[in-house]
Amino acid sequence: MRFRCHVFVCENQRPDADERGSCAARGGEAVRQAFKDELRRRGLKGEVRANGAGCLDACSDGPAVVIYPEGVWYGHVRVEDVAEIVEKHVIGGQPVERLRLVRLERGQP
Amino acid sequence: MRFRCHVFVCENQRPDADERGSCAARGGEAVRQAFKDELRRRGLKGEVRANGAGCLDACSDGPAVVIYPEGVWYGHVRVEDVAEIVEKHVIGGQPVERLRLVRLERGQP
User: Fold this and answer.
1) Is CB count within 10 Å lower at the N or C end of chain B?
2) Contact indicator for B35, B86 with CB cutoff of 8 Å
3) What does pTM read for this prediction?
4) Backbone phi, then psi, for A31, in 5-degree steps?
């Protein structure tokens, strides 16, 4: 696998009037940048990658993050959560349960 | 897993003068839209998702596509290739070898 972990952060932007809100409005871009910074800081550049993504269809739980290949989803991710996700999940292999969108992972409404 | 396959299409845009070019300039957005259309046409909406992504670091092979959870990478993907990727890979489970970036998947330069 090219990247041991590939982190996608929703950066979808909706019009301000849209009642669903959007991950962009909730800070998705800053979260993506925080992942990039933290991965570099931990020496993981090249091995683990963080990218912005279009709408991941988890608007009400945004900013939403999905990490592959494991397919773990996180919601309401703040910049302050990023170091913990990198430490526990990316490095330690244990998802951060308090941020996890388990219902979404199971495809439940 | 929330999505059986999650297709990410690089839509990164670089300045016109950048000699690496970019997936946006090579048609990434049209490829992403073609995936969305084809997945809907094949009744896979909700089960398989296509999203645009920021720079996947495969600029010279763009438009680049990665499909998770399997971590298969494709390069130089054209709109005309999308139906084949959906038919053979997403539905049939067999990657389209002629478009595959095997060296990249192995992390080789």
Assistant:
1) C
2) yes
3) 0.96
4) -65, -45
